[in-house]
């Protein structure tokens, strides 16, 4: 990968919680248009890694370069404004708001600004919401319904649809199908394929080996807070990946992560 190819790069990304080293020296790259899976046991450092990238937490040390410049996001909103859309396991949706208001939460379109009072342009927000849903092939029967009245799959799809609505430069999904049924999982996977066809890069955190082998170009394995393997999908298999996850196997160049 040349520097122009890379959309995100981390160097020596590290997070300590007191004496606990949750993430240690993570060097990671993802190219424009590439889909990369992050795998590992619970506590391996996967979600910690994402929290440092997106500004949910502040890193102990290391650098993050996004879209050609070094960044240090103060919080998730900064990351979103820069072009990183993240679908967290908690979804971060407002249950009492409808779909357009959730998609534009914190980024509302203002029709009239009257000092301390503002009137939202709900019509423009609704139009952009429908375009985003169409782009990802997400089907929501009534976008005026509140999130509280939607199924788990519909909620997940609303969270993912934000990435299409705002034309993100990078999408990160943290276990997007962990709590979904077969049909809802298929819908989310189709959205991921749509993003791939559009050339939009994606980081997918998943425990689902079948899903990973079906959807991504490359697999990065975390173990005990370190990256222990970086594998091209076509050069590996599920059994091989599990060997790295459990520590039964170590990739050359990552010996100290074992």
Overall description:
There is one protein chain. With 258 residues, this protein is α/β, with parallel strands linked by helices. It is built from 8 helices and 12 strands. It has helices spanning 46-54, 76-82, 99-103, 122-135, 152-165, 182-197, 209-215, 238-246, and strands at residues 6-17, 20-31, 35-39, 61-66, 69-71, 84-87, 110-114, 117-120, 170-174, 202-205, 218-223, 226-232. Strands 6-9-10-3-11-12 form a 6-stranded mixed sheet, sandwiched between helices. Strands 2-1-4-5 form a 4-stranded antiparallel sheet, with helices on one face. Strand 4 (61-66) and strand 5 (69-71) form a beta hairpin. It starts with 5 loop residues before the first strand and ends in a 12-residue tail after the last helix. The relative contact order is 0.16. The mean pLDDT is 88.
Quick structural overview:
With about 260 residues, this protein is α/β, with parallel strands linked by helices. Helices cover about 30% and strands about 30% of the residues. It is built from 8 helices and 12 strands.
| Classification by helices and strands | alpha/beta
| Global morphology | globular
What do the pLDDT scores average to? 88
Low-confidence stretches: none
- Sheet-strand content, in percent, reads 25-35%
State the helicity in percent bands.
25-40%
Number of helices: 8
The counted number of beta strands is 12
Strand order of the largest sheet: 6-9-10-3-11-12
Ends apart, CA distance between termini: 26 Å
Rg for CA atoms? 19 Å
Largest sheet: 6 strands, mixed
Q: Give the topology string: H per helix, E per strand.
A: EEEHEEHEHEEHHEHEHEEH
């Amino acid at each position: 990968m040349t520097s122009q190819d890379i959309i995100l790069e981390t160097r020596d990304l590290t997070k300590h919680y007191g004496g606990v080293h949750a993430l240690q020296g993570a060097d990671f790259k993802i190219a424009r248009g590439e889909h990369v899976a992050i795998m590992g046991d619970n506590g391996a450092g996967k979600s910690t890694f994402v929290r440092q990238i997106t500004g949910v937490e502040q890193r102990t040390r290391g650098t993050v370069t996004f879209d050609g410049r070094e960044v240090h996001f103060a919080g998730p909103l900064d990351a979103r404004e820069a072009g990183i859309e993240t679908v967290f396991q908690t979804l971060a949706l407002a249950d009492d708001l409808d779909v357009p208001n959730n998609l534009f939460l914190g980024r509302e379109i203002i029709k009239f600004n009257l000092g301390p009072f503002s009137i939202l342009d709900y019509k423009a927000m609704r139009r952009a919401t429908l375009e985003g849903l169409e782009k990802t092939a997400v089907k929501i029967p009534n976008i005026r319904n509140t999130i509280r009245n939607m199924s788990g799959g519909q909620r997940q799809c609303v969270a993912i649809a934000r990435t299409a609505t705002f034309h993100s430069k990078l999408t990160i999904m943290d276990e997007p199908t962990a709590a979904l049924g077969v049909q809802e999982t298929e819908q989310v996977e189709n959205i991921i394929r749509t993003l791939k066809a559009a050339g939009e890069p994606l980081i997918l955190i998943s425990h689902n080996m079948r899903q990973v082998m079906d959807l991504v170009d490359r697999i990065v394995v975390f173990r005990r807070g370190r990256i222990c393997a970086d594998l091209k999908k076509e050069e590996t298999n599920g059994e091989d990946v599990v060997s790295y996850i459990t520590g039964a196997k170590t990739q050359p160049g990552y010996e100290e992560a074992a």
